[in-house]
Amino acid sequence: MPFKIVKTLIRNSTLTKSSIFRTERWLRDELYAEIPEADFHEFVELLSIDRLESISLTREGSAYDGGYVFCDLGVEYDKLISFGVGDNCDFEVALSRLVREIDLYDHTVDELPLQIKNGTFHRIGLSHVSMRGFATLHEVSKDLLAGQHNLLKIDIEGGEWISIDLADAEVLTNYSQIFLELHNLHQIDDSDRLEQYTKVLKKLRKNHYLISIHGNNWSPYSVIRGVPIPDTVEITLLKKDLYEGALLKKSDKDLTYCSRNNPNKPEYRLIF
Question: What is the distance between the alpha carbons of residues 258 and 80, in angstroms, rounded to a whole number?
């Protein structure tokens, strides 16, 4: 049998794949074990929700992937700025009944999958620096007025970290609520990544409460230092000065407003 065929058979065998998987997992666990304990616990704590007394949460958008948890403040919302439309704008369609104006951004598609009567599509992506075909958070936020109720959604497959990292923290105060899909959490075995993720989460939580976190079960799920963490999570943040109720102790989460991203896989149950 030719040597190339033998190599292919070995490479594709179940035993070989299992051995490679176990080796990769062992190496990853070894790297996770090197994370300073205090740094890891700080990261996990930053992903823990703030339990707010008497707030109304609903899930808006697609029945499965493409929806976000929303807190209805009972006010008129001026603008929703949404980055990362792709082939699904169900969330934006759902909120179009509440928001006066919607700006949708995505440099990877030519048009919206659905038309939104009060929506404007921009074939522009989000970046941490100003360049042709891209905009920064500062650029899209500069015309927003104080006192307005604006919303921000970002789902850009990992680019959210550097875009928020290099944005002025005050830019985020323009938004009553922020909806984010955070990617690549398993890369915290890289010390630079962990430092950046921690910095960004602190920035997001400076002026906003983290009121919802939901694991995207399309992504992998790993137990890191004894804590189950999905690689991708969806979060919702609420501006602190819009809430006057009590901040409760963190406790069991009510997931009745959440929905599985992948209907064919079990829901991830987070413990932080």
Answer: 21
The DSSP result for the chain, as a single string, is --HHHHHHHHHHSHHHHHHHHHHHHHHHHHHHHTS-HHHHHHHHHHTSPPEETT--EEEES-SSTT-EEEE--SS-EEEEEEE--TT--HHHHHHTTTEEEEEEE-SS-SS-SS--TTEEEE--EE-SS-BTTEE-HHHHHTTPPTT--EEEEE--TTTHHHHHHTS-GGGGGGEEEEEEEE--GGGGGSHHHHHHHHHHHHHHHHSEEEEEEEE-TTS-EEEETTEEEES-EEEEEEEGGG--S-EEPP-----TT---SSTTSPPP----
Q: Output the DSSP codes for 51-116.
A: EETT--EEEES-SSTT-EEEE--SS-EEEEEEE--TT--HHHHHHTTTEEEEEEE-SS-SS-SS--
| pTM of the predicted protein model | 0.86
CB proximity list for 269: less than 8 A, separation 6 or greater = 215, 228, 255
Q: Report residue 246 as tokens.
A: 């009590």
**Mind listing the pLDDT tens digit for each residue in 54-102?**
888 999 998 777 889 999 888 999 999 999 998 899 999 999 999 999 9
Segment 153-212, tens digit of pLDDT? 999 989 999 999 999 999 999 999 999 999 999 999 999 999 999 999 999 999 999 999
Contact predicate 242/176, CB 8 Å: yes
